Amino acid sequence: MHKRLSARTTAVLTTLLLSASVVLGAASPAAAHDDFVSSYPTADSTINGSPDEISLMFTGTLTGGDDATVVEVIDESGANVAVDPPTVSGDSITQHLSPDAATGIFTVRWKTVSADGHPISGEYVYTVTPAMATEPSTPTTSPTPETSPTEEPEPARPAQTYGGTASGGGAFELLPLFFLSGLALILGIGVVGVVMAGRQRHQRDRAQAAKDAAATENDADA
Questions:
Q1: Which residues have C-beta within 8 Å of that of residue 63, sequence separation ≥ 6?
Q2: CA–CA gap between residue 222 and residue 210 (Å, rounded)
Q3: Is 72 exposed, middle or buried (0-12, 13-18, 19+ CB in 10 A)?
Q4: Which of these ranges, 20-24, 96-100, 120-124, 125-129, has the smallest mean pLDDT?
Q5: Residues 6 or more apart from 93 whose CB is under 8 A from it?
Q6: Which residue(s) pair with 95 in the sheet?
Q7: Residue 3, exposed/middle/buried by CB under 10 A (0-12, 13-18, 19+)?
Q8: 108-140 pLDDT tens trace
Q9: What is the rounded distance in angstroms from the CA atom of residue 205 to the CA atom of residue 216?
Q10: Do the beta carbons of residue 83 and residue 98 sit within 8 Å?
Q11: How do residues 169-181 score in pLDDT, each as one tens digit?
C-alpha cells in the first residue's frame, strides 16, 4: 500500500514539473519582448509648436537594419510629416519631422524589432498648439546721474550787415560790386571821350567855316 502511494505521488510530481516547465518555456519568449516605455512628446500631451523630432524609448536594445523600424507621424489631414528614415540607437528611436508641420492632433504609428527578433508595434497621439511668441525683455536703464546746473549759453549774435549784405560774406560777395563799379567807370570815360571828341570836331568845323568866309570876302574885294 505504501509503495502504491509513493508511485502515485511520484507520478503526480512528475506531471506538475512537466506542466511547469511547459508553462515557463512558453512564457520565456513572451517575457523577452521589449516594451514601449515613453516618448517625446509624451502620449496624449499638448505642446506649443511642432517639434523638430520625436523619440521613442523601450525597455531593451532594439534590432537595427533596413526596414526593421518604421515610424509615421500623421497629421489631421492624413499627411505623414515624418522625414528621413528613423534612427535606432540602443533602446531608443529618433524620427525627424518636417519643419512645415502644422498644428493639431498627430498620430504616431511605429513598428520595430525586439531584441529577441520578434516584431512589436503601437501608436499614440499628441496635440500641437501654435507656438507662443516670447515677450521681449525690457532693457534696464541706469539712473541718470545728477549734474550741477550750468549757465545757459548766450545766443549767437547775428552777423552785422552793411547796406543789406551780411558782413560775414567775405571778399567774394564784393566781387560783383567791384565789377559793376569798374564797368560804370569805363562807360563814363567812354562817354566823356565821345563828348570831348564831338566838341573838338564842332570847334574845328567853325574855325574852318570862318576861314572859308574870310577867303570869300578877300576874293570879292579884289
A1: 88, 112, 113, 114, 115, 117
A2: 19
A3: middle
A4: 20-24
A5: 55, 56, 58, 62, 69, 71, 86, 87, 110, 112
A6: 54
A7: exposed
A8: 999 999 988 899 999 999 999 998 865 555 555
A9: 17
A10: yes
A11: 455 555 666 667 6
- The residue type at 115: A
Cell numbers placing 150: 550750468
Cell readout for 186 is 569805363
Highest mean pLDDT among 3-12, 42-51, 145-154, 198-207: 42-51
pTM of the predicted model as reported, rounded to 2 decimal places: 0.48
Overall residue count recorded for the chain in this entry = 222
Q: b/e per residue, 147-178, with b = 16+ CB within 10 A?
A: eeeeeeeeeeeeeeeeeeeeeeeeeeeeeeee
d(CA 212, CA 222): 16
Q: Is 81 exposed, middle or buried (0-12, 13-18, 19+ CB in 10 A)?
A: buried
Contact assessment for residue 176 and residue 163, using Cβ atoms and an 8 Å cutoff: no
* 42 Cβ contact list (under 8 Å, min separation 6): 126
Distance CA 152, CA 86 (A): 75
Cell numbers found for residue 217: 570876302
